[in-house]
Amino acid sequence: MTRLWDWAVQTYARPGVADACLELQDRHGMSVPLLLWTLWSREGGSRPDLDAGAQVARSWEVEAVGPLRRLRRALKALNSDPDREAVRDQVKAVELDAERRLLAALERLPALPGPPPPAPELLAAAAAAYGGPLSPESFTDLLRRLNLRAA
To answer: Which of these, 9, 7, 38, 22, lies nearest to 141 by C-alpha position?
Structure first.
């Protein structure tokens, strides 16, 4: 099976996937790495331990990824000059590295026994474990862009 980081980069680059993920992140407080790990696990036929995954993702979000994202966005919102843009680029690189390390931590989690449920229900369960109850319908756009609507 493809490594999670490689799969996530390829998946995120598909048309519309980034926008759908960022919508779930910005409007509903979801962890994009957690969503990608959940889908990657399911694609590999594994049933992810969503409680353990949500705990890892929350920790990284609070301590690293979230603060870096806020700093990067704050730097972007300011009137930019070349020095500030250079700092923003460095922050962006560190944020991406933190997300890569978060995905690596998620990839190391053991799977639960049994087959994974359908993608809409699995993503809704991931959202509930993360702390933001969302209906399976909340993921319609993301699943459509991944051709997983009825999967």
So the answer is: 22
